[in-house]
Amino acid sequence: MGCRDRKKGEAVAIQIRTKTHNPDVYCYELDLASLTSIKEFVDDFNNREPTLHVLINNAAYMGPQSTTMDGYERCFGVNYLGHFYLTYLLKDKLRRGAPSRVINLISDTYSKARLNFDDLPLTPYDIKQAYARSKLCMVMFTSELHRRLAGDIIHVYGVHPGWVCTDILRNWPGVAGNILRTVSRVLFKSPEDGSQTVLFCAVGEKMREMSGKVLENCNIFKVKNYAKDREQCERLWNLSLNLCGLESDIPADKRDPGEKGPPAAVQDVGPREAEPKKEK
Ligand SMILES: NC(=O)c1ccc[n+]([C@@H]2O[C@H](COP(=O)([O-])OP(=O)(O)OC[C@H]3O[C@@H](n4cnc5c(N)ncnc54)[C@H](OP(=O)(O)O)[C@@H]3O)[C@@H](O)[C@H]2O)c1
């Protein structure tokens, strides 16, 4: 487990060791709001572990405007870019562990987002929009990573866990935050129920066909076309490489031209007034 709060993570590791009688549960420091911390975590992991079979990209921030250590808008930086960088740096270990899996936590709120490549700080800032945008990026990342890693037998899944009563709303300020937290305690799923689709993707059998897809309740969750648009996903990939100071060595898989979406003459990604009509 990668945790930014070592004490908190270690306490959970002890609980898991006790419950499962598996002594090999370890917790290492990882702050997804810092590219340096991610690099240090991966260097440490790479020295200790020969392979990696399942990577679950779970962490998320939702709250008032803030930035990461590297100066990126915090939802974008933690929820998406940090996971992008982490996954990229771990790809060789995933290759060695193949068949292996990457699971990206997304949210159905992605469909409310617009991604303007020229406005990463997000002006004006809005909590819902910032969170939704980070999840749109995770949906796009899921498609793009699948295209780039499928040839290495690394399968990639997005998971929308449903609405789950966790601490995700802890930073939502004001009365609205109090109301949302109260409602979530009454109406939302338990964390145990919310984790089932993640577990399904981590250990389920015959999952190959589902790589590149998003799942909810252990079934395919249909994602809007614009969130899978090949040119836009590739653009986000290249931008992310740049923001992380990386050069790509994972070529895009060009074997599936049938998947190619409509040419993207737009500056941003997101819901449009109406989806373009298909030509007859
Ligand atoms: N709950 C829902 O209804 C819902 C719905 C759709 C999707 N999701 C997604 O499910 C995933 C899990 O969220 P959750 O509901 O369990 O929320 P949560 O209780 O707030 O858990 C989020 C976790 O992310 C960690 N985290 C935040 N910033 C971090 C950073 N900079 N570096 C490392 N770790 C960091 C937190 O660590 P600390 O414990 O140290 O704060 C916490 O353990 C998220 O990706 C979320 O977007 C949740």
TrEMBL record:
Residues 270-280 have a biased composition (Basic and acidic residues). InterPro entries: NAD(P)-bd_dom_sf, SDR_fam. The keyword Lyase does not apply. This is RDH12-like protein. Residues 252-280 are annotated as: Disordered. It comes from the Eukaryota. SUPFAM superfamilies: NAD(P)-binding Rossmann-fold domains. Keywords: Oxidoreductase. Transmembrane segments: none annotated. It comes from Mya arenaria (Soft-shell clam). The keyword Lyase does not apply. Coiled coil: none annotated.
